[in-house]
Amino acid sequence: MKAYRIARKPDGPWLNMTPPIRGGVYRPTDTSTDNSDCDDEESSLASSSSSCGDRSSSPSDSTSVTSDCTTVSVDSLVEKVQDEAIIRRRIPSKIVPNHHPTNIAATPSLTRDEYTELAIQQEINDCIKEYPSVDPAVQQDIVRKYRVLHQRVQDEGFYDCPYLEYGKEMARYTTLLVASMTALHFGWYMTSAVFLGLFWHQIMFSAHDAGHGAITHNFKIDTLIGLFVADFCCGLSMGWWKSSHNVHHLITNHPEHDPDIQNVPIFATCPSFFKSIKSSYYDNFVFLWDATAEFLVPYQHYTYYPIMGVARFNLYLLSWLHVLSRKSSSLGGSKAWWIRPTEIVFMICFWFIFGYCLLWRALPTWTIRVAFVLVSHFVTMPLHVQITLSHWGMSTSDLGESESFPQRQLRTTMDVDCPAWLDFIHGGLQFQAVHHLFPRVPRHNLRRLQVLVREFCKETNIPYAILSFADGNRKVLGRLEEVGEQVRFLVTCQKYMAETGESGLH
């Protein structure tokens, strides 16, 4: 890196000074017009208020919408709205989408992009009110207290793996698999499918632990455990999961960066997707907001559970796409070169055992084969619900680069409250907020660690989100319904605009 070093950072915390040109979209300008500020890079660097593509790093400042070499402040958009209630998070609850066009008041109109920016900005405003200030001094104090907490986590042995608990896990996994094979032997095919699905559901919790290096804390050993569990036992690529999941932990719930919430056109968890998001994870692939999304998203709170029931099929596809992609092959030049061929061999073994030996040879008819596949995969639905439960109902706003790691994790993640005897069903995923703060802590230690995290939240004034499983599901469904209502409203206004030439967004 010495060849690229241009200076030394001064001592003390680094305050992010985002250049005004960052993120700008530039096009050739007409030299006859007075757009010198947009052409002058030095002027752009010197002044954030007159530059092209300006986007303030502080969320408390006005967010801007950039088009060519002009910037439009969100504040100016707000002034166009006479009734401020329409930019509340539940916009359609104030405005009836089916309202007859002739009864709409003649007030200043908003375009689709303006409406989206207002909805995004309102969510940012809500977060600013609810959470500690993103002022660097405040956030540095949170970071300091987080480091003190982390030292306590180390000193009190929370990283030590309770291997006896994994012995109990192995006994449960073995019991479920033996029950499935026994039922298969006696011709109880659907019973066998149920136990096989339960086996997949339970054993993937250990793959999650291994993926985080939380079992032995040795890269090679934990990787081998993860590959055996995920690829060989379940047919899912551990490499794909780690590639996706690591990004999810770094920039949780960010629409442009977190692949876990990039599910358009089937699901949209925030208004940001109305603008057609370009994914940084999927190599700038654009999740296009089109007629399909406008048709499906309004019903997403109805399709949520059925799609979660068949979500495993999508994971098979993503797994094979990963092991055959450049992302996986790029490991070939590293010390981890052995991961890709091991994954391919293990996944082929899974499909030979499950696809050929079990489905084709052991089951008598096509009807039973199809039913066996559907039942066994549908039984894993609680795992997919559990994965989405702790994030889809939480904030997706970007409060700027000055927000600390612990605050962002607690703002975008929710814990699920349940009695200790039910922990084996949730597999540690009910402690997602605690897990996101300390990803390598073994899941059997998270319940004890939750006590310290509660104390940390109380000390820093960061709200700690925890709901029961039922309330958490209601929160997620409410969020999906809310975004769906916003889409219905947008579609109604687009139809009105096409008929009259005017916007119905007022």
TrEMBL record:
<dbReference type="InterPro" id="IPR012171">
    <property type="entry name" value="Fatty_acid_desaturase"/>
</dbReference>
<keyword id="KW-0812">Transmembrane</keyword>
<feature type="transmembrane region" description="Helical">
    <location>
        <begin position="344"/>
        <end position="362"/>
    </location>
</feature>
<keyword id="KW-0408">Iron</keyword>
<dbReference type="GO" id="GO:0006629">
    <property type="term" value="P:lipid metabolic process"/>
</dbReference>
<feature type="transmembrane region" description="Helical">
    <location>
        <begin position="304"/>
        <end position="323"/>
    </location>
</feature>
<comment type="similarity">
    <text>Belongs to the fatty acid desaturase type 1 family.</text>
</comment>
<keyword id="KW-0349">Heme</keyword>
<keyword id="KW-1133">Transmembrane helix</keyword>
<feature type="transmembrane region" description="Helical">
    <location>
        <begin position="368"/>
        <end position="385"/>
    </location>
</feature>
<feature type="transmembrane region" description="Helical">
    <location>
        <begin position="176"/>
        <end position="200"/>
    </location>
</feature>
<keyword id="KW-0479">Metal-binding</keyword>
<feature type="compositionally biased region" description="Low complexity">
    <location>
        <begin position="44"/>
        <end position="68"/>
    </location>
</feature>
<dbReference type="GO" id="GO:0016020">
    <property type="term" value="C:membrane"/>
</dbReference>
<keyword id="KW-0472">Membrane</keyword>
<feature type="region of interest" description="Disordered">
    <location>
        <begin position="1"/>
        <end position="68"/>
    </location>
</feature>
<protein>
    <submittedName>
        <fullName>Fatty acid desaturase-domain-containing protein</fullName>
    </submittedName>
</protein>
<comment type="pathway">
    <text>Lipid metabolism.</text>
</comment>
<dbReference type="GO" id="GO:0046872">
    <property type="term" value="F:metal ion binding"/>
</dbReference>
<feature type="domain" description="Fatty acid desaturase">
    <location>
        <begin position="189"/>
        <end position="465"/>
    </location>
</feature>
<dbReference type="InterPro" id="IPR005804">
    <property type="entry name" value="FA_desaturase_dom"/>
</dbReference>
<dbReference type="Pfam" id="PF00487">
    <property type="entry name" value="FA_desaturase"/>
</dbReference>
<keyword id="KW-0443">Lipid metabolism</keyword>
<keyword id="KW-0560">Oxidoreductase</keyword>
<dbReference type="GO" id="GO:0016717">
    <property type="term" value="F:oxidoreductase activity, acting on paired donors, with oxidation of a pair of donors resulting in the reduction of molecular oxygen to two molecules of water"/>
</dbReference>
